[in-house]
Automatic annotation (TrEMBL):
<feature type="domain" description="Helix-turn-helix">
    <location>
        <begin position="7"/>
        <end position="55"/>
    </location>
</feature>
<dbReference type="Pfam" id="PF12728">
    <property type="entry name" value="HTH_17"/>
</dbReference>
<dbReference type="Pfam" id="PF12727">
    <property type="entry name" value="PBP_like"/>
</dbReference>
<dbReference type="InterPro" id="IPR009061">
    <property type="entry name" value="DNA-bd_dom_put_sf"/>
</dbReference>
<dbReference type="InterPro" id="IPR024370">
    <property type="entry name" value="PBP_domain"/>
</dbReference>
<feature type="domain" description="PBP">
    <location>
        <begin position="93"/>
        <end position="283"/>
    </location>
</feature>
<dbReference type="InterPro" id="IPR041657">
    <property type="entry name" value="HTH_17"/>
</dbReference>
<dbReference type="GO" id="GO:0003677">
    <property type="term" value="F:DNA binding"/>
</dbReference>
<dbReference type="InterPro" id="IPR010093">
    <property type="entry name" value="SinI_DNA-bd"/>
</dbReference>
<protein>
    <submittedName>
        <fullName>Putative molybdopterin biosynthesis protein</fullName>
    </submittedName>
</protein>
Amino acid sequence: MKEDRSLTPKEVAGILKIAKNTVYELVKRGELPAYRVGRKIRIELNDVLAYKQQGKRSGFFPAPGPSRELPPVERMAGHVVVCGQDVLLDILARHLEKYPGGKRVFRYHVGSFAGLTALYHGQAHMAAIHLWDGDSGKYNVPFVRHMLPGVPAVIIHLACRMQGFYVAEGNPHHINHWRDLTKPGVRFINREKGCGTRVLLDEQLRLQGIDHKAINGYENEETSHLAVASTVARGEADAGLGNEKASLQVRGIDFVPMQKERYELVIKKEDLEKPEYRAVLDIVCSPLFKSELQGLGDYDLTETGTIVAET
């Protein structure tokens, strides 16, 4: 590839492994130099490579811009906006609405990156995340520090969950390790970019030197654990990655455990003493909340309610 070549936003998205809309956001914010040829945007390969190298040095690429789907929290008066996809957030929302002086909750079902971005841009009050940094082996803290620059935050532990492969009953392709996804004939169904499950997969592939191009179906995406499990159950894929709970809800698949993950809630430190946030802390520490989660299974609640880090 010649280094003086100009690229389209779609080509840049492919190189950086991000959505094309994110490329436009980076150009708009001046983080990625670009120019116009007529009505078309073009970006020099050298600038893309420099941006990519900057991301490698810092550990992560800068967060994308605010979501157009959410208004600022000031316009959500009377509601607490909570980002995340796990069912335990629905239980938390129900408890918060019943709490004395509690507020109505708006659940924004997005992945971890989108949740942190919404929190950073003032479009959410809190975000639940499960982002694994392969270099440090730590969950969430490195990403919060990078994606909420200059914003002191508190990370509250919700639960530990098991991530693993969804496979057909009996595991006919013997998929037990990350490299098994590259076996001939194995069709994979992936999660969308920016969610914690996708980050886990990509970090494991990076650390183990596995080229994602060797995985048949790597580019095929679904946007929830249940959708991935259902795709495998229907025989449209042979393997997918997700949490154990979804495997218990879908018939016709087995679950191969791979990694225990930490699911945690991020709140801006300046908000922690406000009544609705204190209510959240009271709820997640309460025996009633923990008992309800215990009844669902697939949760390790040993540290639930603990403030694990301040950034």
